[in-house]
Amino acid sequence: MILLIQYTLIFSAVLILVALGGMFSERSGIINLGLEGIMVFGAMAGAMVMVLLPESASKFTIVSLTLIAAALAGMISSLLIGVACIYFKADQTLIGTAVNMLATAAATVIVKAFNTNRSKGSDFSAKLDYVRGHDAFMFNIGALQLSWFVVIAAVLLVAAIIFFYKTKFALRLRACGEHPQAADSVGINVYVMRYSGVLLSGFLAGLGGIIYIAAANSTWHFDYGVAGAGFLALAVMIFGQWKPERIAWSAVLFAVFRSLSNVYMGIGFLQALKIPGTVYNMFPYIVSLIVLAFTSQKSRAPKAEGIPYDKGSR
């Protein structure tokens, strides 16, 4: 049961950050289906930092540089979506899909090139120093072993709630996702707000990517992907109705089912059921389909999301 709590908290941290990223993007009016790809870019950048840091690096250095690299990679990759959807007014669904496809392909090429240039032919995925990284990222509270990433996600969640409800900037961001023409008429730069939403999305999704491979991935490898965590975060965002506090509770619900695939062998009554492990791997996605099927009719997405803004139209 302790393991279930540990994995639930870690997966919740991943889903909360990535879903919050999607929320900020869509609240500005840009559909971000590229969260999966942005997570991959963030995971790859953070993992490379972990590989390249010297053994003498302090825990603070490991954690801070890893997070910075992942966040920057997420923001840079999110600009692909921002420029294509805001400047070129491209179809937002297609662009998000393209970023997801690009991320996996780019990660494969970059990591293989990285392996080739590394001395002694060491393999990127197999040789990531996860023991060092794990020690740096974890701490104990009694029998419960927690990740510092959970603390970071909790702090960012509180900050997101305050930011979302208490700041003028967020109010303007939300206005651009609901009535961009009205927002423009009172002097709000819709383009700047939408770029800001996309960059916030990249920042949070990049962090979610490195958390996934450094804490939530039970194989402790970077395998050029994040196993659909970005798409699961989209379901969390929709079920959470694009509101940060509801996203948090939705993330915990989905994380429980996602965690079962990692710990079901240690839970007596689940082990006795003799359900194949692949079924537990399917649980979060089955739950997401069921939940969205029953709640989608009541969902209220931002009115202007997915609609390119034309300053000349009224």
Structure description:
Helices cover 74% and strands 3% of the residues. With 314 residues, the protein is mainly α. It has one domain (2-232). A two-stranded antiparallel sheet has the order 1-2. Strand 1 (138-141) and strand 2 form a beta hairpin. The mean pLDDT is 87.
Domains counted in the coordinates: how many?
Answer: 1
Low-confidence stretches: none
Spatial strand sequence of the major β-sheet: 1-2
End-to-end separation in angstroms reads 57 Å
User: What integer value in Å does the Rg equal?
Assistant: 20 Å
Assign a percent range to the helix content.
Answer: over 70%
Order of helices and strands: HHHHHHEEHHHHHHHH
Strand and helix layout:
Layout (H helix, E strand, L loop, with lengths): L1 H27 L6 H18 L6 H29 L4 H26 L6 H4 L2 H8 E4 L2 E4 H19 L1 H11 L1 H6 L4 H27 L12 H11 L4 H20 L4 H6 L3 H19 L19
Antiparallel strand pairs: 1-2
Which descriptors apply to this entry?
single chain; about 325 residues; mainly alpha; two-stranded antiparallel sheet; about 75% helix; globular
Task: Briefly say what this structure is.
The protein has 314 residues and is mainly α. The protein has 14 helices and 2 strands.
